[in-house]
Amino acid sequence: MQRFRDLSPLKKKEATFGWKLVSPAVILIGLFIMYPVLYNIYLSFFEVSLTPGAPNKFVGFQNYRELLTDPTFWNSFGITILYVLITVVGSILVGLGVALLMNKEFPGRGIVRALYCFHMLHRLFQLFSHGNMF
């Protein structure tokens, strides 16, 4: 990959134009993602009052200490890890199994492949036309 200063004038203009086109989206996405994340990290050091107008009390790392010593948290964390492992490994195995099955010769393989592709195109159409896949 060439450095910017080593590019020809036309390539420099194209690269600059590309950044000009992309930068508003990058800035907006960055703001809409980074602001809530940083604000929630800030709030995690406070005991937040749900009463309007009541001040929040600074507690430092106490919220984190309580979280890390709570057995319910660790139980939920373990269940989440187990769920992720089962679903990821299961999805990979099912996908690999279907791919291997579709790669073998059998009567009606073309029809099955066409139906599968039609199903995937239908889902894609649903996503883009209705905003959800279910």
Tell me the layout of helices and strands.
Elements: H1 9-43, E1 46-47, E2 57-58, H2 62-68, H3 71-103, H4 109-130
Antiparallel strand pairs: 1-2
Protein model, in words:
The chain is mainly alpha-helical and about 130 residues long. It is about 70% helix and about 5% strand. The chain has a two-stranded antiparallel sheet with strand order 1-2. The radius of gyration is 26 Å and the shape is flat. The mean pLDDT is about 90.
Summarize the structure.
The protein is mainly α.
N-C termini distance: 42 Å
Taken from the alpha-carbon principal axes, the silhouette is flat
Order of helices and strands: HEEHHH
Q: Number of helix segments? A: 4
Q: What fraction of residues sit in β-strands? A: under 5%
Sheet bearing the most strands, described? Answer: 2 strands, antiparallel
Percent helix range: over 70%
Let me know the average pLDDT: 91
Structural classification: mainly alpha
Radius of gyration: 26 Å
Low-confidence stretches: none
Strand order of the largest sheet: 1-2
Number of separate strands? 2
